[in-house]
């Protein structure tokens, strides 16, 4: 990979190179951190000659111009679309908001605070009821290999085993009586 010198980046910043070289330098910046550092140093060195934008009202001026152009485009579009005569004023494009809609409050169940409280209550309920603990135990049992898991008898097997034990104890009592 070819690296470019600081002087080449300085020429790039000053716009003293041809378009082909400029494109090569720009593409190279995407893949080389070393050259990116040289470029940033060249910009820093040349910072005093760069134009200074007044930051006080710049954003407001740009946004006002954008909204002005947007309104002009909407009006011209409406005129073309509806084939309005030049003597008739176009309909305003701003949405009409009724006074009731501005002052209208959302119901409590549509507010974000309600949803946060509901989520917190559900979490506490599930935590104290042991749902999360049983989920953790279930996940743990799935992670262990089948061979290492202890085979627990089913309920039916347990009942049968207890029944046989009870019958054996009865037979021993009768054998002792005889």
Report on this model:
With 178 residues, the protein is mainly alpha-helical. Helix 1 crosses helix 3. The chain is built from eight helices and no strands. The mean pLDDT is 79.
Q: Could you list the spans in which at least 5 consecutive residues all have pLDDT below 50?
A: none
Biggest sheet features = none
Total beta-strand segments: 0
- Given helix and strand content, the structural type is mainly alpha
Oligomeric description of these chains: single chain
Tell me, briefly, the overall form.
Answer: elongated
Number of helices: 8
Termini separation comes to 102 Å
Q: What is the residue-mean pLDDT, rounded to a whole number?
A: 79
Q: What's the alpha carbon Rg, rounded to whole Å?
A: 40 Å
Short summary:
The protein has eight helices and no strands. It is an all-alpha fold and 178 residues long. Helix 1 (6-13) packs across helix 3.
Record the SSE blueprint.
Blueprint: H1 6-13, H2 19-29, H3 33-45, H4 58-82, H5 99-103, H6 112-129, H7 131-143, H8 155-177
């Amino acid at each position: 990979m070819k690296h470019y010198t600081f002087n080449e980046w300085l020429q790039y910043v000053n716009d003293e190179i041809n378009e082909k070289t400029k494109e090569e330098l720009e593409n190279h910046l995407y893949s080389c951190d070393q050259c990116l550092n040289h470029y940033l140093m060249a910009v820093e060195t040349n910072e005093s000659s760069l134009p200074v934008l007044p930051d006080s009202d710049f954003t407001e001026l740009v946004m006002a111009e954008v909204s002005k152009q947007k309104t002009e485009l909407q009006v011209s579009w409406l005129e073309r679309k509806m084939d309005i005569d030049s003597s008739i004023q176009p309909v305003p494009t701003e949405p009409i908001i009724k006074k009731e809609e501005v002052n209208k409050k959302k119901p409590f169940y549509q507010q974000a605070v309600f949803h946060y409280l509901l989520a917190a209550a559900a979490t506490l309920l599930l935590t104290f009821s042991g749902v999360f603990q049983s989920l953790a135990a279930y996940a743990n049992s799935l992670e262990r290999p089948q061979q290492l898991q202890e085979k627990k008898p089913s309920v039916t097997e347990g009942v049968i085993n207890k029944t046989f034990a009870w019958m054996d104890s009865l037979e021993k009592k009768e054998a002792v009586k005889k």
